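#dry-run=false #mode=assembly
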Amino acid sequence: MSGFRLKLLRIRRLARKELRQLFRDPRTKRIIFASPIVQLLLFGYAVNTDVRDVRMFVQDHDRTADSRGLVQSLTAGTEFRLAGTSDRAADLTRALDHGDATVGIVIPAGFEADLAAGRTADVQVIVDGTNSNTGILAQGYATRAIQAYGLRRAAERTGVAPDPPVQLDARAWFNPGLVSRVYNVPAVVGMIVMLMSMLLTALSVVRERELGTLDQLLVSPLSAGELMLGKTIPVAAIAMVQLALVTTVALLWFRIPFRGSFLLLLFAAALFILAGLAVGLLISTVSRTQQEAFLGLFLTLFPVVILSGFLYPVETMPPFFERLSLLNPLHHFLVIARSVFLKGAGIVVLWPQVAALAGMAVVGLWAATRRFRGVVG
Amino acid sequence: MDGTRAVTIIDPVRLLAIARKEWIQVRRDRRSLYLAFGLPLLLLIFFGYAINWDIEDLPLAVLDRDHTAESRALVDAFTASGLFTVVDRPAREAEVEAGLVSGAVRAALVVPPGFARDAAAGDARVQLLLDGADANTATVALGYADAIVARYGARLAGSRTSAPPIDPQARVWYNPTLESKNMIVPALIAVIMSVIAALLTALTIAREWERGTMEQLAASPVSRVEVVLGKLLPYLAIGLVDVAAAVAAGLLVFQAPLRGDVFLLGVLTILFLAGALGFGIFISAAVKSQVLATQMGLIATYLPSLLLSGFLFDIASMPLPLQGVTLLVPARYFVTVTRGIFLKGVGLEALWPQALMMIAFATLGLALAVRAFKKEIPA
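#status=ok
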């Protein structure tokens, strides 16, 4: 047999051993195949920044048909849910302090009289500033709804429809309803795949080292490169299956539109998974104990998610972090996934991201192999 | 036979002996110890600076077909807001489209010809195209753009229009300047500690199994409760130092306000840590393998405490069944507690439901840990 074929045979044997080892424990199978689906089903519903069912407490000092009409027009849609009504300030404070409401509306006495006389009525919109950005969005919604109510009532009174001199005609492309789930679910797909591929590799080398089985591998005719390939290929295959599973759930269950090319997504995903595995392998070769690898994994996972543009565009971060995010495989993959899913963008637009992922996969695997050679030596 | 189970009273000497043994083991693994102490602080400082919830300098393309003083004033109104930065002035509609698809611009303002004339007549329209693929940013940008155009229109109309029928006045409580660090720092402490706590103990018993020291532990005259509590103590100390350092950093580095009772925060932190550490021991004892314990520990704590705790996403807006699931995420209670004590300055009168749930979790976590920790050595 030629040297190359021997090489392939050795890698295949090692890959098979890795797979057998991985699946020896039936619980691993559940972690690998069931947990990504369960995670996407849970988190797909959680990642929602639409203003929906935000609890609103009303402090009504007017208690007239008009004040009730205002509350009704606010709670008629899906945005707000009435959490309580009172005419005492202490009750509103209590509701916000205890977290029973996120938004408070204060309608002053004489509200109806002001409206009827054509005087400007003051309504207070109070928002709980601790509660992420939902509160801020809710405040914008409430303010606009209250203004609209006032204009409508004024129009009914005078018989003239008030018309602003300049109208904004806004159109959101790729996602006309501005549904946040459509934007966030492809990101959760990327996050889960990244987490799983790092989980599967971060302990792989350090574990053999701690258990002493690394010595056995060392006396075998496998070279460091072959060892790395043998460890990478099975995990990469598993990660691809996971990606296929969660993408299917995203498309069929969450009905996320898919406008681009499956082939491009698959190609980019393969590079992304290899880059993720390389990070995991690097952690594994740098650590001396599994505990250390575990902590190292954690140290990497948080920045990977926060600097990915998952929630907030990377462009709004300080320049240092914006540049740092360029080293984050998840950041590039999210750009690709969102563009392919929602915009139908092709390689012409996405080649910088694809190239970055390819570069990271190559450099990462090369560095991991080098580190591994250091460990072996 | 049942000698170990007969020991039900906790003997402080034996308990401390186990704790000391665990501490020696922790100390020996220097790098892990440094990570355990340094990690939360590092992550907090990192994210306190990195996360910026305020959207600003959003790349905007402007297609001005009117070329009048009025249209330029409108564009100026957009850039003066600080939210938008004009990065591109395409000549044709097709170029606007290309910019949105490639992501080079997030929004495009199209001013039609005759804008100034129409505005004078009180009936002008401008078009704003948004990259809806990023729904979060687009929603915020749309709100701002609405306000900018309304203000511009009002100024243009001058005295022509009367006062608005209702003038809503917005107030923000607890964080009046809406500084993002104030929202993030307290909650981030809770989220980081949720993961760190499970991480610290997830390997402790699995390690004994894998290294074969379990037999020695089983042969020693200590009860299961003593082992679990003894193993817990050193990590509880580490966790408390972590939280103290993170709170100090929050106050000194980020100047986050701490309006409530520090003592109450300390007590609730201990409760939370006891539950989370106990849960880690439970996983460790149940799966007996460090790899599996790692995977389960991270899957059970990392994304759930990030996404289901109310840190980033409002729990009230989630579907009801999922709201039920969040009740099982301990980080949810700790996030409410840190935000409540830091920003709202509330005490037990508001936080008692969270305190009760944390007591329940601590009891459950420790009970599960003791139950899962079996001293029998399989044949």
